[in-house]
Amino acid sequence: MTKRRKLKKDIPWKKLLILSLSLIFSLFILYVFFFSSIFKISTMHISGSTYVPLKEVEAFYAPLKGQNIFFADVATKTLEAKFPLIASVHVEKNFPNSITINIVEYPPAVLVQTPAITYVYSENGIVVDKVANSSTKYLLPLVITTESNASLIPASSLISFVNALEKDKHEFATTFMFIPPFELIANYTDKHTVTFSLHTNQTKQMQEMEEIRTGLGFTKCKNLDVRFENVYCSS
Fold first, then answer.
1. pLDDT tens, 144-164?
2. 152, 155, 171, 178: most buried, per Cβ within 10 A?
3. CATH number attached to the domain at 43-105
């Protein structure tokens, strides 16, 4: 009887010990996750930033350092809004305490050669570089213009037209000329030209060019003007 009673008295102490150890373990886990430096962001790796200044991206994400990696707000949309040249951002959390930021920028698309300098425009119409007019650094479609003020060049429309004409599998445009304020002339290998208006419907003008090409052919229309309601053709 005495032995049995002793066993009964020992049972609550074992439970208490187990509960105490469980509580200590839980508090330890909470401390590790929320208060220790193990899961606090200490390093960041940034890749893909070619034209957006790396220092500015680092400054944008600097407040993440010291934050808990589980709850850190990476705010990729805010970064895209701050830098229009960025097409997308992917942030990868590398446990326990580092993050990798992969940036995808809009690529260079068109060269616009002014009398003084050549501007390199990205696919979404932003100047990403400036080079000498004789430079061969970029192998991109070339637009020549007399307009020296980059802010007066309708870059988005210009790039849209040039990209569409570059995809034309039937013919190859050697160079383009931008005549301010809205005129674009495409020069082709057989020396014929097509004149477009940058503020008139692009699809319609392209269709009119195609109709002339398949109907009359460019041998009869060496100089084609599709800017207006009436198409002008001259040999």
1. 999 999 889 999 999 999 999
2. 178
3. 3.10.20.310
Half-sphere CA count of 126, side-chain side, radius 13 A: 12
Sheet of 86-94, strand order: 43-47, 98-105, 86-94
| Residue 49 CB contacts under 8 Å (≥ 6 apart), including other chains | 57, 103, 105
- Secondary structure of residue 232 in the 3-state scheme: strand
Q: Cα–chain-centroid distance for residue 217?
A: 39
Angle subtended at Cα 190 by Cα 184 and Cα 194, rounded to the nearest 5 degrees: 20
For tokens 């200490």, what's the residue? 42
pLDDT digits (tens, 9 = 90+) for 77-113: 788 888 889 999 998 989 888 999 999 999 999 999 9
Strands 142-145 and 108-113 turn out to be parallel
Whether the pLDDT of residue 18 is over 80: the answer is no
Longest dimension (CA), the chain: 122
Q: Where are the domains of the chain?
A: 43-105, 108-234
What are the pLDDT digits (tens) for 188-233?
988 899 999 999 999 999 999 988 888 887 778 889 999 998 899 8
Pull the structure tokens for residue 98: 């580092």
Global confidence as pTM: 0.74
